[in-house]
Amino acid sequence: QVQFVESGGGSVQPGGSLRLSCIASGFTFGNYAMSWYRQPPGKERELVATITSYGSTNYLDSVKGRFTISRDNAKNTVYLQMNSLKLDDTAVYYCKTGIGNWGQGTQVTVSS
Description:
Distance between the termini: 40 Å
Number of helices: 0
Strand order of the largest sheet: 2-10-9-4-5-6
Number of strands: 10
Order of helices and strands: EEEEEEEEEE
Helix content: under 10%
């Protein structure tokens, strides 16, 4: 079955960096666009970044220039490099494509 396993979250100070990873399984990874979403505490889940099967990317305006999404089709893995982290980036981060259920996510906490 389709599964997503996110990792790489943690606690950092403002201005810090983290690299999230998501290993996907149960489908032909290279054929699908992959996205990162996040859900801040007490708020709705929002789309952060998307990478298509051929590598085109799109970003939420508030993360442009700070976050970079990438993929390794040989490893069925999508990454989210997050630099210059801000307090508002605190959230649970999930990866997803158009099929399958949500994974457990990975917590990112930015605090001073």
